């Protein structure tokens, strides 16, 4: 599994973005993805299966407009 940490811009709320991302992933039939938040740091955490390029691309594309930074773990 790969873990992505998206640090959000101050103008966005982690819970709202995480809910929107989860809906987008369900629409695209990407199952087995865990989306959680760390409200204190305004972060969205996404756990994806290894070697799933299209899923990673969908997550990064969605988060591009909301993030201040990204950490791949």
What characteristics describe this protein?
single chain; 4 strands; 33% strand; Ribosomal Protein S8, Chain: A, domain 1; 2 helices
Structural class of the secondary elements?
Answer: alpha+beta
CATH topology: Ribosomal Protein S8, Chain: A, domain 1
> How many structurally independent domains?
1
Shape: globular
Work out the number of β strands.
4
Which range best describes the helical content: under 10%, 10-25%, 25-40%, 40-55%, 55-70% or over 70%? 25-40%
Instruction: Specify Rg, calculated over alpha carbons.
Output: 11 Å
What summary fits the major beta sheet?
A: 4 strands, antiparallel
How far from one another are the termini? 9 Å
Order of helices and strands: EHEEHE
CATH architecture type: 2-Layer Sandwich
Number of helices: 2
CATH class: Alpha Beta
Question: Which strand order spans the largest sheet, edge to edge or round the barrel?
Answer: 2-3-1-4
What portion of the residues fall into strands of 2 or more residues?
A: 25-35%
Average pLDDT level: 88
Uncertain runs with pLDDT below 50, 5 residues or more?
none
């Amino acid at each position: 599994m790969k873990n992505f940490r998206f640090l959000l811009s101050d103008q966005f709320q982690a819970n709202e973005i995480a809910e929107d991302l989860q809906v987008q992933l369900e629409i695209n039939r990407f199952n087995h993805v865990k989306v959680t938040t760390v409200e204190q740091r305004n972060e969205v955490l996404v756990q994806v299966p290894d070697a799933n390029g299209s899923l990673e691309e969908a997550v990064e594309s969605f988060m591009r407009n909301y993030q201040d930074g990204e950490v791949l773990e």
